[in-house]
Amino acid sequence: MNLPEKHRIRAAFSRAASTYDAAAVLQREVCRALLDVLTNPGGGDCMPADILDAGCGTGYGARLLAGRWPTARLVAADFAAAMAKKTAATTAACVADIEALPFGNTSFDLWWSSLTVQWCDPQRVFAEAARVLRPQGRLALSTLGPATYAELRRAFAGIDHHRHTLDFSEPAPLVMAAEAAGFGDVQIVRRSITLHYPDLKALLGAVKAIGANALGAGRRNGMMGKAAWQALSAAYDAQRVGEGLPASYDVILLTAKR
After folding, report:
1. Which of 77, 195, 219, 231 is the most buried (most CB within 10 A)?
2. Range 2-30 average pLDDT
3. How many structural domains comprise the chain?
4. Domain containing 252: what range?
């Protein structure tokens, strides 16, 4: 990721710190799912003494981890200062880029990151995770796969050719990046989660409220015209179900061992 793009994404998440918690329904559900996968009977023993929450947001995941392992030393990091500041109210937190962590080698037993790696270079992320983990340390991350926002992409297909969602990765490249960094016993669990919204404005507002509207190269510059907005709304509304307008999330849960 180039530096200007990283600065823009950081700014978007910093602006969203005050609205994030009210809108982060998916983020909380995914954190709970990741913890379940990490601690399920088939997931192996996991009794970390030192835990890193890499890309902590406002701290929901850190609080889950503290509840599961109350005696562990827990450190949280986020590259958006406003997010890290909110987490710091309940957990030791710092401002840091998970592609270049400010921690020494073999500092942690568990490296955790929920819905962050899609904004990063996975190879750098896994390399840093491997560096700061102790031998036999555990890695647990969640991210989103390419079926995410399928309904939104279908609605935009007849409107323009701009980029409207991130280019989410299939699991295979993530597994390859993890193994290249020295991880073994890489396990993938894939789940589909669908949220529903009363209308398109509410859906896009929820995306903006968590800071996830920064898309990088190929995005539309400027506001959408009235006619295009009406066409988009109509195309999305054609996919409406009883619960409202669907927004699908292709959730990838990855665990591994150092």
Report:
1. 77
2. 82
3. 1
4. 3-257
